[in-house]
Amino acid sequence: MARKENCAMKITLKTMPSKESQVILDSLQKAVTQALERKRRLGHYVVVWREGGPVMIGEDAPKVSENPVSYEADRSF
Questions:
Q1: Do 35 and 45 touch, CB atoms closer than 8 A?
Q2: Could you tell me how many helices (H) and strands (E) the chain has, helices first?
Q3: Separation between Cα atoms, residue 54 and residue 16, nearest integer Å
Q4: 48, 7 in Cβ contact below 8 A?
Q5: Between residues 65 and 57, which one has the greater pLDDT?
């Protein structure tokens, strides 16, 4: 059974956004929540930002050893 990760967005604001900005933020949060839920139902991995870098979560997430050459190192395209 897959381990359930908490992928909820955490929004920290120092000032209150305008009404228009709040509508946009709410829409973006809803879209991300729906996308994460869809990926969970389909069994797809997700990429989230944790501790200053991207992290792949899910049973089908590529392992580090599967991609030994990083994008930064391989610029032959």
A1: no
A2: 1, 2
A3: 28
A4: yes
A5: 57
